[in-house]
Amino acid sequence: VARLQHPSIVAVFDYGTFMDGGAYLVMELVRGEDLRHVLQREGRLDGKRAMRILDSICQAIEAAHRDGVLHRDLKPENILRRADGSHALSDFGIARTNDNASLLTQKGATVGTPHYMSPEQLRGDAIDGRSDLYGLGVVLFQLLAGELPFRGGDGWAIGLQHLHAPIPRLPPGVARYQALLDDL
Questions:
Q1: Residue 105 in this model has a pLDDT that exceeds 50
Q2: 34 is catalytic
């Protein structure tokens, strides 16, 4: 993650291991808030604002994928709004590289936040950059609709909807973005 250098990715300045074996990471301080807090306060965002955020995070994902890094946990809590209004992708805690030697999970293991996970990720299948795009599609739905596309009592119920339910429809006021959502 430290090698990722992009204006829409929270910068990592240093990393290492303490003498007791614990790891540390020195990151950019972002004086702002995450999108989860924005959504809690505002409910949903207008289309223009959501598209600006989407553009910024798409650029971050593209840069990460170009360097062989999959984020695997795209969600509003991991998108930070800086004081200047720009947005940055953060928390690559469960990220992995495309290099099989550096996998953080084994095939068949599931890791991530069920509300935002792609069907492949939920099944524990091998994933690629499309899983990040799927998660971004869920975030976009939430930004535009003000709610998650799938809800349930637990991760299993939510996961089943991601696996089998049709793509949810946006409300009428933002329905013009449905085609974009369908493509993600």
A1: no
A2: no
